[in-house]
């Protein structure tokens, strides 16, 4: 088993002054699943892009099967038997599975022969690895898990021996993720080599044979998965001990702050995406909404935050009925509702703004920031500086362009802005998506503090772990409905079944 | 992984890169001049001499620059809101109608210092009015502003022909222009001022509208970077979703932004009509609306940059005329080619040399681009 599929020796890569990869050593044994973990910005993606020929290393050597090779383009990587499944799929949405698979490998000017050959080959791959998918289905009609399978098939159709998967489970249900892992194990049994890039420690433990940890552009350790623990890996990633579980006391729920009754939301395609949803959030509790991405959670919180019009239903905020059919954002803010949106890059922040300008986004109307006809920029910068200090936003420079902050610090900018307004209801979407482990801990503590200060917190996240460790009550959404409510001690399996819509018929009370 | 290239220092962003672009544009233009058998060096000398070598040259250069500052600001304001107003040409011509109405009505009764402010208001209102329909269509119907403003340029052109031939043309005249304005619409020339500086600028059309242009530049700077409206415009321009999130009314902001943009384009009409020709003529805008796009691009939508870019284009206009006059092989069309090259390199290829400059900066002086030696700012 000691034969090496891939060896990276002394890889260096800089972008200007940023050293994305420093003297990386990595050796992957043939026929194993090898995990690469690290925080965002640790250099995982850069390393894999070098291996796949998107970038070239400044120095260092790549060996495949023991032989030094030079990989300058993805085509050369493919020729060396390397296949890659990107985090964001590279599929043509309105092509069929078959058309996508032969794309770039059509064979000849006329498609017929290529398609016929591909069909046969696809059949063989399906049999061999358990990768069933309808070759004539159009991609946009397929579930996300199946789309991912098409990506894997694409790689094997091109003769991949080594498969790189970049954050493959971000978009999958727990069940779909399990299925993916079964496929990966089967690939391993067939002698293929898999490199799994992720920041989820649980996946590493569940499926890999070996794991390498990256931090700030360097490879800090490689372990046999069976000989390490989640705690050790987390510490290696962050460089210090991290609290993986949030410490919190008993919730003391008070009066109802936010109440949603029979809410129905219809999207642009005239499809009901939220169906008759009712629930309440009380002061001093965190209510988590679990669900696979795309089951109406986003639309639900956007409607509550006044960004979308409801078709039907009632919303009560602090005991007062709120207009939800064409409401103005600013009014909701005035009534004490703060919103940390799911999409911080496009919604929660203006990345081109300097940091201080984002510190007032949505509150720029406030009288305290005006001085006659002009804005009182001194005051705005002062407010921004105090948030930077309080939330340990780094680097502590309110004049720096927001895009130049790391994901975790960007999220802190949003969180600081919304929490500092002292809202009575806080609606939070995906608070830790794309956020490094150290900042996750900080953000979770802040949310618990909000709860303990008697605020009502509504949390939506696709990270089941996050929902389970923060929430006092968990609502599960499937296909636009709330299909169940559970306590924080509900097992993952139970929630997973609800999220997958298996337990459909349950009184949604 | 964050962006590999970091921000440049301001002076490089606003100074060095435009200069490099300009140098390349002139290099290529020089090749063109060589190709038609003239000396590029001589051409440059002629151009600079024509534009800056005499009081008259300076006067004309700044006169043209005045036009381009207004139209450049107009494009820039819309740009900040993520809108591409290329209807400056039409908006300026229709604004001219407003100016002409004011002048023809009051030039015999009021002194210039009352007529002029009235004309300013009329120019702004008429210019803004010409974008009202495109703005409404963009805000409420999503019809793309580029398409609608182009169409409105054509409509304005036809409208102007109709108005000048059928309404403004003085009886018994052949040319499609109004009667000359009287005393009450004659605004001061800057001849005496230049004279006091020791520059003899006789018979140049440079007038006080030049100062109005500088004032407008300052106003735009205040608007964009110091007011709530400017904040909202920029938010919408960078990220419409963030604007929605921040409670900024998109429709309202689109319309207001375009009205301001078109009003600025409209102010341009004061310069030729009241400052130079003392009457309204057909085609008095003379392409300034389109040059404004290049000026805004080159000036990076910043008023200071726009002033410099406007002077540069003023120089090309004025100095170019000189070259065409002196060098038989270089026609007026050739000057347009040279201006096109400048627009091409300064506008369309704005980003061509940027990665290179950024790499040089990042490796020479990491601190200057805001980088620490190690990856910045992990929490």
Report on this structure.
The complex is a heterodimer of chains A (509) and B (379). Chain A is built from 17 helices and 22 strands. Chain A has 509 residues and is of the alpha/beta class. Chain A folds into 2 domains: 4-238, Rossmann fold, CATH 3.40.50.300; 256-346 and 423-499, Rossmann fold, CATH 3.40.50.300. In chain A, the strands form 5 sheets. A 6-stranded mixed beta sheet of chain A has the order 6-7-8-3-9-10, with helices on both faces. Chain A has a 6-stranded mixed beta sheet with strand order 16-19-20-13-21-22, with helices on both faces. In chain A, helix 14 (407-420) packs parallel to helix 15 (437-452). The longest helix of chain A has 19 residues, at 111-129. Chain A is globular, with a radius of gyration of 25 Å. With 379 residues, chain B is mainly alpha-helical. Chain B has one domain (10-354): ABC transporter involved in vitamin B12 uptake, BtuC, CATH 1.10.3470. In chain B, 71% of the residues lie in helices and 0% in strands. Chain B contains 16 helices and no strands. The longest helix of chain B has 30 residues, at 112-141. Chain B is globular. Residues 1-5 and 368-379 of chain B have low confidence and may be disordered. At the A-B interface, strand 2, helix 10, helix 11, strand 18 and helix 14 of A face helix 9, helix 10 and helix 16 of B.
